[in-house]
Specification:
The structure holds 3 protein chains of 3 kinds. By secondary structure, chain A is an alpha+beta fold. Helix content of chain A is 41%, strand content 18%. Chain A folds into 3 domains: 285 residues, no CATH class; 114 residues, no CATH class; 63 residues, Orthogonal Bundle (Arc Repressor Mutant, subunit A). The model of chain A has no long low-confidence stretch (mean pLDDT 92). By secondary structure, chain B is of the alpha/beta class. Chain B has a single domain, classed as Amidase signature (AS) domain (Amidase signature (AS) enzymes). Chain B is globular, with a radius of gyration of 21 Å. Chain B starts with 5 loop residues before the first helix and ends in a 14-residue tail after the last helix. The mean pLDDT of chain B is 97. By secondary structure, chain C is an alpha+beta fold. Chain C is flat and about 55 Å long. In chain C, 31% of the residues are buried. Classes of the chains: A alpha+beta, B alpha/beta, C alpha+beta. Chains in contact: A-B, A-C, B-C. Chain B: Its EC number is 6.3.5.7. Chain B: One of its GO terms (biological process) is translation.
Chain lengths: 480, 486, 95
């Protein structure tokens, strides 16, 4: 009997506010250590937190996006533990009354199936600082710039049963938070971090002991870490061992994971309501305003793509998920006037190129408008699809807009029939044996043999001949 | 000059009877002369005080005065003061030069106050005798072998001996009112949220409140006027208009209903303590107040509830003292655990450690419901008792403390009996109500005080009650022989 | 709910306090005195009473999302017990 895998996720989503959750310190990455750590962030004696309005708004917007109940009086609590990157000795977070209650996220799987993942809740909390281990001659340096950064922690029910589902869910969540504009979604900057809870069991048996693999910061690492952990658990159980409830660390470079040094004390975080903060109220009017300002969600966008652009469900799903991709697609469609071509180019040439150079779509050297122009030239027959790829490469290399490239390189299709006719005549005159062979063949063979003349013509025109026009002309001349 | 109240000194400055510099030098000289024995200051900021005094004199000359221009005031060493050591009475912060200034200190400075220095206190405000200070106990100016009460013991003692004309304090369970009673001064704990806690080193955040300590209710009204108000840096400070406290002192109190909670006069109470408070209430009756008996049945659980809630909050509030970013750090920590444990154990005194342990235990898994949650439930019962009483009465009165100043060391080995020193004051903090203590006579040469508790935001009313009483009595004018030349 | 030296040791570890073996018994006994006093809470009838975390029934004021805090690193590091290259320094952290 095979093993059944049970996966639940906890996702830390960094909110893209201007200032921190409890202080007016600037939120940004890459600043010199401790230059964006205020009195509050440093946990100075006598300092007090004040809640950022925008962080509350963004958390509630997320709740509405997943059809969750919004807690009208959510409460901040203190989670007490000692760690050098935790300046106050407690993390201000939410426990009993989180701002976002139970909700659901529907995920489209590659198989075409749909999967509903239940969200247990999502709460607002502050991030910790960073421990730096290099360059401190055996000591550790503490940088508190990140301390106090607003996060929402999204906690799912254990509804996923393999790594692919978990990744599909994670991508969907990424699509939601970027679509509603609450998170920049840059995984390389830690904007989203995943903790994965994995257990296995035989079908019908109660849940097995779970482990938690923490701080996975890419979809790929998440997928690999889950598979690795599932294999490990199967090996342990099939060898008659037991799974120990523990926290594990995954190393993406070596594709290995290890148990974190177990703390000798069982975690007793001594949660209690933070006496420096009061219940955060969200009124009916607040909710109405949020609903009115709700940006288009990925599911709605997908439906619109299918309806407006006649995309297949699969294409619509790929293009609507990521806000930047969706915007790129729509920009290229608008500029190019052909959704199907735009979809093919965004999912094909562009995606391959971005992938090869490990670039996000936002960093694409070819803009949506440029791609649109390229598509327009394809459509109006100025260039062939073969030439289009060449133009795209040139645009990518920064040689200018498609029109500029086409002009500069003289890539315009030869659509002047007089000029083309002359070339065709020359080819027929100079290749008498082939012409004769062609004319002696039956219709079926002629279809193959015409390729030779097309090749010669393309060679002569450096690929600029309009293929349809050329075909027509050749047939006309050869068949007479 | 030191026999004058703050209000009288303000008039003297306005009249040009003396300059702020003369006044400040006078008190600095008294501190030099007497504080060696009293130990009421941790830090005297002489240079800064004189500079502020000179600036005040210029402001007075230019006719640009604030509420407190040129008046010397001593701040409890729990308020952060930029560039000046802020110790909180602890070895942990012995070398802590605060990088910013508390709102209370800023507000008073912006009204022209002159800071004389920082007063001694129980370590992290945990204590009722000022014996837990790292800087040694403060003596009571009425009997140098006795304690001044706590935790604002330095503030009360320096004021009792007139080494400062006014002082700030903080009150988590009685830390303004109990030492006020023991040193024959007037001290007010405002409604929770009336005064900003920004820059006031936290003991128990949901109970802590700063307030004025003065020679009279009028002095307290003057100071509160400068201290009170919403602060955008303190989420728990109330965004509500600040009353005219000096104006409130002009109101008539005839027809005022005084409630006497029977629980504040238990059979076990020292008869002489009870008599002094009853006599004070009779004076107010003569002024037209009505007296009725009320009951606060849950108040008997205020001490147990407090000794769960306050240590629980403190255990968390004091976690930031970890030897990493400020404060005491042990020598040569061998690893992180060692850094934490030795820095904290060396930096904190015994009472602070006890309370951290009690609070940690009360919040720990398996005990939360039995202790912390239950204490918060009892807290609501206590608040509801007060609310019911205030449906019938305007103010509540009773003794501030169950006994006069006790001998130094008398309760050192018995924390629980020490905790009972605040039996009448703690309920007020749990409910968040305003209350003051005013001098109401002596027992064997030691001062006693009576507490006046008001409804939320009725500081003006309780100050007025005390003011009316002080206009017909002179207990608050009595001075100890210590400090000479009386 | 009496506590013994073992519980004291556990709680002290949670609070990152060192308790010397020699003081442990005396400390346990003091803590037990306090807990015995606190145990009076068990008499209270609190059925259906909501816990009260704050004296006043008010809600959290919210701050506009603006940068209002200056860079205070130099000031902060000056009072730090150990700092280097803009960071606070602690013994090596092993995860």
């Amino acid at each position: 009997m095979s093993w059944e895998v049970v996966i639940g996720l906890e996702i830390h989503v960094q909110l893209n506010t201007t200032s921190k959750l409890f202080s007016g310190s600037k939120l940004s990455t890459g600043a010199e250590p401790n230059t964006q750590a205020s009195l509050v962030d440093l946990g100075m004696p006598g300092t007090l937190p004040v809640v950022n309005k925008e962080a509350v708004r963004k958390a509630a917007l997320f709740g509405l996006a997943i059809n969750a109940d919004i807690c009208r009086h959510s409460v901040f609590e203190r989670k007490n533990y000692f760690y050098p990157d935790l300046p106050k000795g407690y993390q201000t977070t939410q426990l009993d009354k989180p701002i976002v209650g139970a909700g659901v996220v529907e995920v489209q799987l590659e198989s075409g199936e749909k999967k509903v993942v239940r969200i247990h809740h999502a709460h607002l909390e502050e991030d910790a600082g960073k421990s730096l281990h290099e360059d401190f001659h055996g000591m550790t340096g503490i940088d508190l710039n990140r301390a106090g950064t607003p996060l929402i922690e999204v906690v799912t029910e254990p509804d996923m049963s393999n790594a692919e589902e978990a990744v599909a869910f994670a991508k969907k969540l990424h699509a939601i938070v970027t679509s509603i504009g609450i998170c920049d979604g840059d995984m390389s900057q830690g904007n989203m971090r995943f903790d994965v809870n994995v257990s296995i069991r035989k079908p019908g048996e109660p849940l097995g002991t779970r482990t938690e693999t923490k701080n996975l910061n890419s979809f790929r690492f998440m997928e690999r870490a889950i598979k690795l952990e599932v294999e490990r658990q199967i090996d342990v159980l099939e060898d008659g061992g037991e799974i120990v409830q523990e926290t594990r660390l995954y190393n993406g470079d070596t594709h290995t994971a290890r148990s974190m040094r177990s703390k000798e004390d069982a975690n007793d975080y001594r949660y209690f309501p933070c006496p420096d903060l009061l219940p955060v109220e969200i009124t009916d009017a607040d909710l109405d305003a949020l609903k009115a300002a709700m940006p288009e969600l990925p599911d709605a966008r997908k439906a619109r793509f299918i309806a407006d652009y006649q995309l297949s469900e699969y294409d619509a799903d790929l293009l609507s998920g990521d806000l930047a991709t969706a915007a790129f697609f729509e920009g290229a469609t608008k500029a190019g006037g052909d959704a199907k071509l735009a979809a093919n180019w965004v999912m094909g040439e562009l995606a391959a190129k971005l992938n090869a150079e490990e670039k996000a779509i936002g960093e694409s050297p070819v803009s949506a408008e440029q791609l649109g122009q390229l598509i327009a030239r394809l459509k109006d027959g100025t260039i062939s699809s073969k030439i289009a790829k060449q133009v795209f490469e040139a645009c990518w290399a920064g040689e200018g807009d498609p029109d500029v490239v086409i002009e500069a390189k003289g890539l315009k299709q030869m659509s002047d029939s007089g000029e083309l006719e002359k070339i065709v005549d020359d080819i027929i005159a100079n290749n008498a044996p082939q012409v004769e062979d062609y004319r002696n063949s039956d219709d079926d063979k002629r279809k193959k043999k015409i390729g030779f003349f097309v090749g010669q013509a393309m060679k002569a025109t450096q690929g600029k001949a309009n293929p349809q026009q050329l075909n027509q002309l050749l047939k006309q001349k050869l068949d007479q | 000059m030191h026999t004058k109240t703050l209000t009288e000194l303000k008039a003297g400055l306005a009249n040009g009877d003396f300059s702020s510099r003369e006044l400040t030098e006078h008190f600095l000289a008294r501190i030099k002369q007497f504080d060696g024995e009293l130990n009421s200051f941790v830090t005297v900021t002489e240079q800064q005080a004189l500079a502020q005094a000179d600036a005040a004199d210029q402001a007075i000359a230019a006719g640009q005065t604030g509420l407190l221009t040129g008046l010397p005031i001593a701040h409890k060493d729990i308020f952060c003061t930029e560039g000046v050591r802020t110790s909180c009475g602890s070895k942990m912060l012995d070398s802590f030069i605060a990088p910013y200034t508390a709102t209370v200190v800023n507000k008073m400075a912006s009204e022209g106050a002159v800071m004389l220095g920082k007063t001694n206190m129980d370590e992290f405000a945990m204590g009722s005798s000022n014996e837990t200070s790292y800087y040694g106990p403060v003596k009571n100016p009425w009997d140098l072998e006795r304690v001044p009460g706590g935790s604002s013991g330095g503030a009360a003692a320096c004021l009792g001996a007139r080494l400062a004309p006014a002082a700030t304090g903080t009150d988590t369970g009685g830390s303004i009112r109990q030492p006020a009673a023991l040193n024959n001064i007037t001290g007010l704990k405002p409604t929770y949220g009336r005064v900003s806690r920004w820059g006031m080193i936290a003991f128990a955040s949901s109970l802590d409140q700063a307030g004025p300590m003065g020679q009279s209710a009028e002095d307290c009204a003057l100071m509160l006027q400068a201290m009170a108000g919403h602060d955008h840096r303190d989420s728990t400070s109330l965004n509500q208009k600040v009353d005219d406290y000096l104006g409130a002192l002009k109101e008539d109190i005839s027809g005022l209903t005084i409630g006497i909670p029977e629980e504040f006069f238990p059979d076990t109470l020292d008869g002489a303590i009870a008599d002094n408070s009853r006599a004070a209430i009779r004076e107010l009756e003569k002024l037209g107040a009505k007296v009725v008996s009320v009951s606060l049945p849950s108040i008997k659980l205020s001490v147990p509830a407090y000794y769960v809630i306050a240590p629980a909050e403190a255990s968390s509030n004091l976690s930031r003292f970890d030897g990493v970013r400020f404060g005491h750090r042990c020598d040569d920590p061998k690893d992180l655990e060692d850094l934490y444990k030795r820095s904290r154990s060396e930096g904190f005194g015994d009472e602070v450690k006890r309370r951290i342990l009690v609070g940690t235990y009360a919040l720990s898994a398996g005990y939360y419901d039995a202790y912390y949650r239950r204490a918060q439930q009892v807290r609501r019962l206590i608040r509801d008792d007060f609310a019911r009483a205030f449906e019938k009465v305007d103010v509540l009165m009773g003794p501030t403390a169950p006994e006069t100043a006790f001998k130094l060391g008398a309760k050192k080995d018995d924390p629980v009996s020490m905790y009972m020193a605040d039996v009448f004051t703690i309920g007020v903090n749990l409910a968040g109500l305003p209350a003051l203590s005013m001098p109401t006579g002596f027992i064997n040469g030691l001062p006693t005080g009576t507490q006046v508790i008001g409804n939320y935001f009725r500081e003006g009313q309780i100050l007025n009650v005390a003011h009316k009483y002080q206009q017909v009595t002179d207990w608050h004018r009595q001075l100890p022989t210590f400090g000479g030349e009386q | 709910m009496a506590i013994d030296s073992k519980v004291v040791a556990q709680v002290a570890h949670l609070a990152r306090l060192k308790v010397d073996q020699a003081d442990s018994d005396a400390l346990s006994s003091r803590l037990n005195d306090i807990l015995a006093m606190v145990d009076q809470l068990q008499q209270a009838d609190v059925a259906d009473v909501a816990p009260m975390a704050h004296p006043l029934d008010v809600t959290q004021p919210l701050r506009d999302d603006e940068v209002s805090e200056p860079n205070i690193r130099d000031k902060a590091l000056e009072i730090a017990p150990a700092a280097e290259d803009g960071c606070f320094l602690v013994p090596r952290v092993i995860e």
